[in-house]
Amino acid sequence: MALSGMLLNGASFHGGCCRHHVLLSSLGPLLSNSKLYSSYRRPGAGPEKKPSWQNVDFSFKKAFDHLKTQLSLLRKETQDYLLGPGGHPFNQHLLEQTRVLWQFRSQEDLNKWVISSDEEIGGKSKVHIKLGRNNQAALLYGTLNTEVPRDGETQYSGYCSMRSRPAVGSFNRKKYYDWSNFNSLYLRVRGDGRPWMVNIYTDPYFSHQKDDLYSYFMFTRGGPYWEEIKIPFSKFFLSSRGRVQDNQHPIWLDKASRLTLGFTIGDKVDGPFQLEINFIGLLNDRAHREEFAYEAYDKNTPV
Amino acid sequence: MTPQAKLIFTISLILGTTITISSNHWLMAWAGLEINTLAVLPLISKSHHPRAIEAATKYFLVQSAASALVLFSSTTNAWHTGQWDITQMTHPLSCLILTSAIAMKLGLVPFHFWFPEVLQGSTLTTGLLLSTAMKLPPMALLYMTSPSLNPTLLTTLAILSAALGGWMGLNQTQIRKILAFSSISHLGWMTIIIHYNPKLTLLNFYLYILMTAAVFLTLNSTKALKLSTLMTTWTKAPSLNAMLLLTLLSLAGLPPLTGFLPKWLIIQELTKQDMVSTATIISLLSLLGLFFYLRLAYCTTITLPPHTTNHMKQWHVNKPISPSIAILTTMSIALLPISPMILTAL
Q1: Distance from CA of A244 to the nearest CA of B (A)
Q2: d(CA A149, CA A122)
Q3: Stated pTM of the model
Q4: Is A203 on the interface with B (CB under 8 A)?
Q5: For residue B72, is it within any domain?
Q6: Which of A93, B123, B189, B308 is least surrounded, with the fewest CB atoms within 10 Å of its CB?
Q7: pLDDT tens readout for residues A31-65
């Protein structure tokens, strides 16, 4: 089966190659997978993505295994649905005040996160992640370099970030988070005194919301002691493509799909940085009564 | 929103509803449906929150598609029969398309997917509007065309609605979504009897409007949007919460409250029409709904802190509770003894 697939691939590529060469060259920018408006590939960006038809793997056994994993995930989802909201019994949903979302105890916990830096636009910052001492924390370390890449259009540079992968359910469907019981993020970190930005990216289903990001700051102490930072959700402000919006609204977390939590450092200071994260959780802080920290401007006030 | 804008939207809603209900030409009915759709969109998206905009988008897409299907079915019927009268819908394909269009408008299964999301994205007042007033035109069209529609299809849609409305409401913790699923299951009860005794559908619909309005307005005055908040609203208006318990049980259809009247009469009518198994199935499926109504009632009234709550006690009422809630609540609890009078009035 796999051999026939390879033959098919080879045949189509060869046969179509010469005929379509002229056509392809005239339609070059339109056909490339990357941005339609710029064919300039930044120095740090990866090589061109293979077209999806060259990625096809006709292995029957792999497909069967994949189907088995997805079906077992589906079965687990059904059982969770029968248990109650969010997979927990109902009284647990009503009574819970804390929940641990991500903790870093093994390599597979680290695989749930993606690190990136301004190398992808041609900058010189470096970032790495590894498990800390005694497998108790994740250590995010690297060097920030604010030297601007010389490509004529970038003005600022120097950022590194770590983002979580969004959770997917069976058959790559969206998994919704219900964080409506909680009103703060709770982080146990040990930093080096540098300020970080915590970003929540949610619901990119509608294209006009795909640039929306809710952010707030996390100021770390440098000490050898662990710090427990509470960031209430009422403090997160909305920005779109990096610009803070005038119309602010509180973040709704009752049905967040493809939610990504991210930590970014971009404080314009060259040099090394280090952040150890023990766990990230949610907290229902009863002492925090604020609903939203920013004024919601009413545009059409009656005169 | 400025008062002028609110006036325009309210008048458009009343206009659209009136046009559809009083029309006997399909184009007028369609025009009324479109006016309704467009007028309610700014009300849903008033707060400009992304979730509200998403709700408005979903509402617009579904309702426009349904209106287009209404127009299409009436056009094909006019092509085949030469007339545009609403009550003379005779071509079978047109009737089929019309059934699916009305199911989309009302939120009957399998076209119910938009309803919980739209209700969740809108405020409680707008949710009340969507559940009650926006169901009037499609219900009127269903009433007028019911003799021509396929009874098996309607019965299937009804039973599926009662089933899914019950099952999908079980795991919800957001109150607006629970009320959406309750609406879907009530629509199932309304649809199952429309072929045999349309007056019972209307009775069920009016009583449903009454009870849902009481519930929505009560929740609006206590500002409870999720179950954990609902548990601590008894501090705001204790007697109102106690009445909410009875109103919710009335929605569930328990005797001797008002909500029992339509269910009893529908089961009686189905039995008279020799559909005993259908009556049994739909009654059993409404037990699922009873489960989440009881859960809401438990969270509202039967539970007292300090145990089983995760929310701080709320201590202030935002604005005075309007007296219409008292009237609606009383009517939604105590109308069963005067049921002969209600039936003769219909």
Answers
A1: 16
A2: 5
A3: 0.88
A4: yes
A5: yes
A6: B308
A7: 444 455 556 666 666 667 777 777 777 888 989 99
